[in-house]
Amino acid sequence: MITRYQHENLLWIDLETPTREEIDEITREQSLHPLIGESILSPTRYTGVELYENVIYLVLHFPIFFDNHDDEKREVDFVLGKNFLITAHCGDVEPIHDFATLFESGRLAETVPLDRHAGYFFFYLIRSIYRSLIHELDGIEDRLEEVEKKVFQGGEQRMVSTLSDINRDLLNFRQATRPHRETLLLLESAGTSFFGSEFSHHLRTITGEFHKVWNTLEGHKETLRELRETNDSLLSSATTNVMKTLTILTFATSPLIIISGIFGMNTRHTPILGNLFDFWIIILLMLFSIVSVLGILIYKRWF
Asked: What is the pTM of this model?
């Protein structure tokens, strides 16, 4: 699907799940190199920057939590010309959709210099995407804080699965954004050559926005690591206490087994058996043995 947005001499073309016919149309319309069209049609696992005579072609992958909070990453292709920008992606990307709404309302043009060249429009778009990633990381931070509360409220067993889910989200986030650092450095060089040195500040700012995302991600990763270690320690301590209790119970009841075994022996002359109150004497003997064992455990501070 092709959606066009126009502001004076600036054209933004957004391609959502484009077909070959749509790619061919835009390639002819904007005089793009055929390799760009083929690259858009062929999703890649790698990010990259290519500088052509009349455009910059950029590929980035973003972790997608916007649609259904799944753990996918989505490729977004940017074709950046002097007075136009083309974005191509498979499926809806919420930050791009929100930015389009802002652009259509005219509020964006009131605050940013869109009339200079398309580089400024690209700058505000990519900054909006990175800030949406920060928002998603804020959501993960809220989850970590909730886990911390429950861990220290005795819910460490239930938090094992939750911590694993958060770890998976952070891992996917990290895998998607890690290549951005090198790619954005290449973009700084290509963008400065294409738009001029006066635009280099905005290109460095884009890299700075990425570093905000990365530093936040690393902070959450460290918090998660410490929470998992704490949760594992509490689980280990709880397991140790259970095993200690079971061991004590086994040790405390062992005299009962011995006594019952002795009086259960099939012998001709067993002491006490056959006498008056023999049952109660044996019960008292068992109780005495339990009390004695527990007394020893308490005295040794093993219990």
From this structure: 0.72
What's the CA gap between 301 and 87, in Å, rounded? 71
8 A C-beta contact, residue 83 and residue 117: yes
Classify strands 56-64 and 48-51 as parallel, antiparallel or unpaired: antiparallel
Contacts of 248 (CB under 8 A, 6+ apart): 297, 302, 303
For the segment 261-277, what is each residue's pLDDT rounded down to a tens digit? Answer: 776 766 666 677 767 77
CB 140 within 8 A of CB 166: yes
Contact (CB, 8 A) for 217 and 174: yes
DSSP 53: S
Please give the DSSP secondary-structure letter assigned to residue 9: T
Amino acid at 150: K
Q: What angle do CA 209, 214, 219 make, to 5 degrees?
A: 130
